[in-house]
Write a structure and sequence with these properties.
CATH architecture of the largest domain: 2-Layer Sandwich
CATH topology of the largest domain: Uridine Diphospho-n-acetylenolpyruvylglucosamine Reductase, domain 3
Strand order of the largest sheet: 6-7-12-10-11
CATH class of the largest domain: Alpha Beta
Structural class: alpha+beta
Bound molecules: flavin-adenine dinucleotide, NADP nicotinamide-adenine-dinucleotide phosphate
Radius of gyration: 20 Å
Order of helices and strands: EEHEEEEEHEEEEHEHHEEHEEHEEEHE
Mean pLDDT: 97
């Protein structure tokens, strides 16, 4: 079951060439426990891997890459709505399309997000004003050190903007095996993002007659028109989180740049990182093998199949430039390994 010295390029959407000292694809609980036992015996660090769409490989991985391929999807409907239970290895977009095909709403704005179900809670995936936490019920995870199964409620997960306990206190300690979501019987469409509204208007969609499936279709079309498909141009989606800044900094930036794109976020402001990077002149720039996408400045691309060092080097240069120009710190969204 355990393979040695495995090429990881096919397993990360940035298409970075790097090797794993050990690699296992696990399709059920027994295989998962066996692989964990192997790693424990050999004292190997573990990288749980889904679709590889939110990682940057900065070099060869010295431990065990554990490809989580657990399958299974059930939907139980009752008077309160539906309880969706999905194993960690299920494809996220397929899950969304399965729910909307059953006329169930709640996940449609999250259509076409790449990756697997098991990674969705890690950064509380979000798009078009909806986050996983909005419908999240609970999850089950294996504690890597002991092999025990633990359940996490929504409160246990400490979800925040692109964040959860699995990026903080519980980082590197768990393999998520199953996620449950509760979809409401009373559904409200969420179509306030400008790009989505423009699409619905230009396609003469009657907003009063919206269905989850129609929104998923709109989200899919808008995303396809703006975002590079990793199959064509390797990338990891948005490379930086949208920074949350204090009011004083927002007011200064707004007076200097009246067209600044920003949204209120509690007491603070969420700045569109893509706008800052674009305004700084990075959109469409290419440096050797890597670059910044020409339609969406928040997406770093790897058209020349460059190294992780080239990507992280470009990210550092962009972040330093944004800091110098705007006094704003950008934080990468994908996780760097090793
Ligand atoms: P991976 O990249 O394989 O892993 C990501 C992290 O999760 C790693 O730290 C990994 O160790 C950990 N992990 C994976 N599986 C498990 C598991 N079973 N147990 C424990 N840890 C695990 N994200 C958004 O939030 N919104 C978007 O709209 C969005 N759009 C994207 C568009 C594109 C074109 C791309 C390439 C990416 C986009 N992303 C988006 C980022 C990414 O798709 C999500 O973060 C997704 O959830 C990652 O899933 P994955 O299976 O590929 O995770
Ligand atoms: P967009 O629609 O051009 O919007 C630009 C930014 O403004 C987004 O980052 C979004 O923040 C924010 N925004 C827009 N309308 C908003 C509103 N009504 N209220 C609050 N914030 C608003 O963005 P895009 O790049 O094409 O992406 C569309 C959606 O898909 C976004 O939600 C984005 O997060 C998501 N996405 C994520 C990734 C990823 O890898 N994480 C990749 C592609 C797309 P938010 O990002 O906070 O929503």
């Amino acid at each position: 079951m355990i393979r040695r010295d495995v090429d990881l390029q096919p397993f990360n959407t940035m298409a970075i060439r790097a090797r794993a000292a050990h690699y296992a694809r696990v399709g059920d609980q027994d295989e998962l426990q066996e692989a964990l036992e192997f790693a424990r015996r050999q004292r190997l660090p573990i990288l749980p891997l889904g679709g590889g769409s939110n990682i940057v490989l900065t070099g060869d991985y010295p431990g065990l890459v554990l490809h989580v391929d657990l399958q299974g999807l059930t939907v139980e409907e009752d008077s309160r709505g539906a309880l969706v239970t999905a194993a960690a290895g299920e494809n996220w977009h397929r899950l969304v399309m399965h729910t909307v095909s059953r006329k169930l709403g709640g996940l449609e704005n999250l259509a076409l997000i790449p990756g697997r179900v098991g990674a969705a809670p890690i950064q509380n995936i979000g798009a078009y004003g909806v986050e996983l936490r909005d419908t999240f019920e609970d999850l089950t995870a294996v504690h890597i050190a002991s092999g025990e199964l633990h359940d996490f409620s929504r409160a246990d997960c400490h979800f925040a903007y692109r964040d959860s306990v699995f990026k903080g206190a519980a980082r590197d300690q768990y393999i998520i095996t199953r996620v449950r979501m509760r979809l409401p019987s009373q559904w409200q469409p969420r179509v306030d993002y400008p790009a989505l509204q423009e699409y619905l208007e230009s396609h003469a969609v009657d907003v009063g007659a919206l269905t989850p499936a129609r929104i998923a279709e709109a989200v899919t079309a808008v995303r396809r028109s703006k975002l590079p498909d990793p199959q064509d141009i390797p990338n990891a989606g948005s490379f930086f989180k949208n920074p949350l800044v204090e009011d004083a900094l927002y007011q200064r930036l707004k007076s200097e740049h009246p067209d600044l794109v920003a949204y209120p976020a509690g007491e603070r402001w969420k700045l569109a990182a893509g706008w800052l990077i674009d305004r700084a002149g990075w959109r469409g720039r290419r440096i050797d093998n890597v670059g910044v996408h020409d339609r969406q400045a928040l997406v770093l691309v790897n058209p020349g199949r460059g190294t992780g060092a080239e990507i992280t080097g470009l990210a550092r240069r962009i972040a330093a430039d944004i800091h110098d120009r705007f006094g704003v710190d950008l934080e990468p969204e994908p996780r760097y390994y090793p």
